[in-house]
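Hi everyone, sorry if this is the wrong subforum. Our group has a chain we'd like a structural model of before ordering constructs, and none of us has done structure prediction before. Sequence below.
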Amino acid sequence: MDPCFFHIDVNSAFLSWTAVDRLAHGDTVDLREVPSIIGGDQSSRHGIVLAKSIPAKKYHIETAEPIVNAFKKYPDLIMAPPDMKLYHRMSKQMMDYLHSFTDDIEQASVDEVYLDFAPIAHLYESPLSFANMIRETIYSKFGFTVNVGISDVKVLAKMASDFTKPNKTHTLYRSEIKEKMWPLPVGDLFLCGKSAQATLKKLEINTIGDLATANPDVLNSHLKSMGALLQNFANGIDDSVVNTQEREAKGIGNSTTGSHDITTKEEASKVIYSLCESVSLRLKKAGFLAGSVTVEIKYADFKSFSHQTGLERPIYTAKALHEAAMPLFDALWNQSPIRLLGVRATKLVSEDEPMQLSLFDDCFSIDNSSGQKSIADDLKEKKLESALSSIRDKYGKNAIRKGM
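Answer:
Right subforum, don't worry. Here is the predicted structure as tokens:
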């Protein structure tokens, strides 16, 4: 069968799960049917809107906006506090159910799942019938609803699940993008944040179709690598696959949630370098090199996104990991405040495994006019990293740091 991806997204997850739990404990008001939100401190009304009901949308209440603003829009808004233990429990129930069909599943966040349907397609009548069965069973078993997006491209499955809600199944195959996706506002495109939208508006690029057919050189001059990524998505170009939990378990990674949201690339780069140092040390101790690097970003609304790249040859030094990670960060970041950053090394190989050299590798000269790293450069860098690791092992991880 041709590639077929599902994106399964819980409708207003935090609010839906809170509503289901309250109804199970005798509450007579279904939060999903009235203007309501999940937010922070109920007494002081501090914090941001984490989730909203569909009736709340009528008052233009938005996820991630300050709670105080939401109450100005509708003073009779019902607010409930978040319950992360409940949410993880409900998420696990859904994941366990989906794993009863296949292990080709990638959990993108607590309420979002990608599923590779192709390996099990022969067992079911069609992708649409399987999606509807999943959607209806989740509602009957657990009491909450999901949207299911179906496509031959992973990013388009994500886009399809964001169409009309709640409790719907939508398709968005590459053959359908001109009809179903190109007329939409450019802000509806996956990863097109407010900053990118503002830039595109200045360029008179208002719809996804406008972006799909725009001059690539103009996009690059204004949005750098993000412009190319967004234009690829607008044209249904995405070669990413479902990263199963089994494959992820073979990686070594680290993440951090800061005391405050990260708002600049400079600050993010320093945090990512620190994470790379930690991952590098763990790789060295385990005796592995990384054949691929993944960067994760979690925003203030708790939505997580990740991007992965393969490497020409395996690496382990913090500098090399950082150099691989930053282009991924550039492609992912939509200029919104960042709550969490993560770096993961995957496709691990033993450091003793023979390394295949490129025809362009220069084993003898450190001075390389092409700008590509030579084997000598790598050896020099590894010796430096080894010396730094030894000092940290003896005197603590903060005993010495490399300048940025």
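For your construct planning: The CA atoms of residues 249 and 305 lie 18 Å apart. Residues 356-376 have pLDDT under 50 and may be disordered.
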